[in-house]
Amino acid sequence: MFLLKGVLSIQAQSTLSNTFNLQFVFCTETKVSMAMRQTPLTCSGHTRPVVDLAFSGITPYGYFLISACKDGKPMLRQGDTGDWIGTFLGHKGAVWGATLNKEATKAATAAADFTAKVWDAVSGDEVLTLAHKHIVKSVNFTQDSSCLLTGGNDKTIRIYDINKPEAEPQEITGHTSAIKKALWCNNDTQILSAADDKTVRLWDRTSTAVVKQLSFDMSVSSMEYIPDGEVLVITYGKTIAFYNALSLDLIKTVDAPASIHSASLHPDKDFFVAGGDDFKLYKYDYSTKEELESYKGHFGPVHCVRFSPDGELYASGSEDGTLRLWQTEVGKTYGLWKCVLPGEFALFHIEH
Amino acid sequence: MRTPMSVLRLPRGPDPNSRGFDPDSPRFIALCSTTISSSTDTETDSVQIGEEQCARSMLRESFLRTLIAMTNKQVQFYMYERVKVNAVFVASDIDVLNFQVSDLQTPIGVQKEALLRCQDVILYSFDL
Fold first, then answer.
1. Which of A128, A42, A306 lies closest to B9, judged by CA?
2. A200 near A194, Cβ under 8 Å?
3. CA atoms of A338 and A35, how far apart (whole Å)
4. What is the interface pTM, i.e. ipTM, of the complex?
5. Does A204 map to a domain?
6. In terms of Cα–Cα distance, which of A271, A254, A272 is closest to A263?
7. In the beta sheet, which residues pair with residue A232?
8. Per the domain annotation, does A106 fall within a domain?
9. Contacts of B27 in chain A (CB under 8 A)
10. Where would I find the WD repeats (chain A) (predicted)?
């Protein structure tokens, strides 16, 4: 809260022996209201629906975002600004899944051209092409980026050693329908998979046997795994469900006003966001299950939504071909968002 | 009445002329030494990297000269699925992803102008 009168010009000596010239531009006596309206940042560039997106971890160069698109050209963006960095060129069909490793040095994509590809995420070069027998839908790196998990329409989960790509992958069969998502969990010792056979299965990596299985009345639309706290977020129909990732015990479910395609839990587990058929983004309180905010903006169903690794924003990908970045705490200065107080007050500081 | 959150600018979109991954960005300079994985594996020293770079530029230059030499000549393209076609080579795009050709002889007729996807080409040959 600020209270200011008149126009001030101050010259001040800082402790770093730089002289600052502080100019208050256009001051008024004003009490600041902190209720700001969400302004999403639209990232354009894709020409077809965006079907999947993933963030990297936090690296010395910030964090990054990869988007999978039906135009076959997945893109890498700076995570906090949405600025385009590069496009991975090479796939000959729609890209259904995309992921980055923690350090954002490698990317992997899953496509309708029956291949999964591994890319150098710094140079944009294609590093590996892994041929499959059908459309590949999901790709996921282990924590040390040494192995890649793939799953797709041939109903088989495969584990590739990236350092020995010519070697036959380890195969895990059991699903009776196309696999939508396959994720490493429990410190890369187990695998979680969701398929169109309306099941979510937990597999042991070494024995390749099913450890536990969840069955639903309808197909699971998305799955997110949060290693810190071992939480699994599953969406189906209008429901967002939270499970313990180790035991597959149900924690809670929340119902949304419309069919949900994807949901994401905030790293601090205080909020979760969801999006689906009604084009809107919903933000809920995780503890109370209360709907806090809903945002219109996309011109088509929302296919994917993910929180950034620092929880300051979440990104959504839509049928309308755009990605949108949304602030978790509206009003905070972060990335490209700048808190400018009402009354067109702005503080400039000029360093000599 | 809530004030909309201000934005410094919009996110930058893709460059229509390139695939990005700016080699002058701090991240690229710090993380990309050479692009041959074998070099990074054997921890080659700067002299060997220099030699590697010389060899690479020579090869690149030769390749580009072959593209120039190929212009307006009849080229045979051997592609996947036992496809062998003849065409007059016109140009390549900057990333060598597509070749523009004229009078492409196909089993269903002659295509006056066409684009060949380079990924689908196994080898091509022409007479100098």
1. A42
2. yes
3. 14
4. 0.80
5. yes
6. A272
7. A225, A243
8. yes
9. 61, 122
10. 88-129, 129-170, 172-213, 295-336
A191 CA: distance to closest CA in chain B (Å): 30
Contacts of B17 in chain A (CB under 8 A): none
Instruction: Assess contact for A296 and A279: CB atoms under 8 A.
Output: yes
**Tally of domains within chain A:** 1
CA A249 to chain CA centroid, Å, is 24
- Residue A130: CATH number of its domain: 2.130.10.10
Q: Is B41 helix (H, G, I), strand (E, B) or coil?
A: helix
Interface test with A, best of B15, B17, B31 (most A CBs within 10 A): B31
**Contact assignment for A37 to B3 by CB distance below 8 Å:** yes
Q: Provide the domain limits for residue A306.
A: 41-327
- Residue A340 inside a domain? The answer is no
Q: Which one-letter amino acid corresponds to residue B22?
A: D
Per-residue pLDDT of chain A (352 residues; tens, 9 = 90+): 443 343 434 444 444 444 444 434 333 333 344 578 999 999 999 999 999 999 999 999 999 999 999 999 999 999 999 999 999 999 999 999 999 999 999 999 999 999 999 999 999 999 999 999 999 999 999 999 999 999 999 999 999 999 998 999 999 999 999 999 999 999 999 999 999 999 999 999 999 999 999 999 999 999 999 999 999 999 999 999 999 999 999 999 999 999 999 999 999 999 999 999 999 999 999 999 999 999 999 999 999 999 999 999 999 999 999 999 999 999 999 999 998 876 654 444 333 3
| Structure token pair of residue A100 | 């980055």
Are A36 and B2 in contact by the 8 Å Cβ rule? The answer is yes
> Is position A301 within any domain?
yes
